[in-house]
Amino acid sequence: MALERTFSMIKPDATRRNLTGAITKALEDAGLRVVASRRVWMSRREAEGFYAVHKERPFFGELVESMSSGPTVVQVLEGENAIARNREVMGATNPADAAEGTIRKSFALSIGENSVHGSDAPETAAQEIKYWFSDTEIVG
Ligand code: DAT
Ligand code: MG
């Protein structure tokens, strides 16, 4: 498997608790390299656009509210199997189901405030990276 890139986000519930460093360390310890990073307080409109795939879900309003409630850190991660590796180190969406040692098991507060986002497939990774970063901002 060649080097792959994925999109990651440290969510407002985590930046609020000063967990940016701890979460980045967990990603780096898992073999992922941060090749782009920016702190951004997204607008409701940006959050709605980013999570458009979930717009019919009952939790969409809550999700947009929470994602625009404070700063996030948007990142591009690079590594072998980066998409799957990142999902593995993040843990299950609901922290109650997340495996021991995962970021969500260690830090998430609830299914809605679950500390991190990670792309789930090559197509969404490409789309999500492009949503937040231009090519020149990614330095591998
Ligand atoms: P993931 O972030 O693991 O890819 P997802 O794509 O199914 O999970 O959902 C996106 C986000 O939406 C998730 O990180 C938190 C929120 N969410 C999902 N299910 C939820 C629920 N049942 N109640 C509240 N928020 C939810
Ligand atoms: Mg998802």
From TrEMBL:
Pfam families: NDK (PF00334)
Top-level taxon: Bacteria
Assigned keywords, A-Z: ATP-binding, Cytoplasm, Kinase, Magnesium, Metal-binding, Nucleotide metabolism, Nucleotide-binding, Phosphoprotein, Transferase
GO function terms (MF aspect): nucleoside diphosphate kinase activity
Nucleoside diphosphate kinase-like domain boundaries: 3-140
Principal EC category: transferase
Reaction equation(s) it catalyzes: a 2'-deoxyribonucleoside 5'-diphosphate + ATP = a 2'-deoxyribonucleoside 5'-triphosphate + ADP; a ribonucleoside 5'-diphosphate + ATP = a ribonucleoside 5'-triphosphate + ADP
Amino-acid positions noted as binding ATP in the UniProt annotation, renumbered to this chain: 11, 59, 87, 93, 104, 114
InterPro entries cross-referenced by the UniProt entry: NDK-like_dom (IPR034907), NDK-like_dom_sf (IPR036850), Nucleoside_diP_kinase (IPR001564), Nucleoside_diP_kinase_AS (IPR023005)
PROSITE patterns: NDPK (PS00469), NDPK_LIKE (PS51374)
Cofactor: Mg(2+)
Active site positions, chain numbering: 117 (pros-phosphohistidine intermediate)
SUPFAM superfamilies, per the entry: Nucleoside diphosphate kinase, NDK
Compartments where located: Cytoplasm
Enzyme Commission designation: 2.7.4.6
Database matches in PANTHER family: NUCLEOSIDE DIPHOSPHATE KINASE
Role, per record: Major role in the synthesis of nucleoside triphosphates other than ATP. The ATP gamma phosphate is transferred to the NDP beta phosphate via a ping-pong mechanism, using a phosphorylated active-site intermediate.
Subunit structure, interactors included: Homotetramer.
Family indicated by similarity: Belongs to the NDK family.
Stored NCBIfam families: PRK00668.1
Name under which the protein is recorded: Nucleoside diphosphate kinase
Protein source organism: Aquamicrobium ahrensii
Gene: ndk
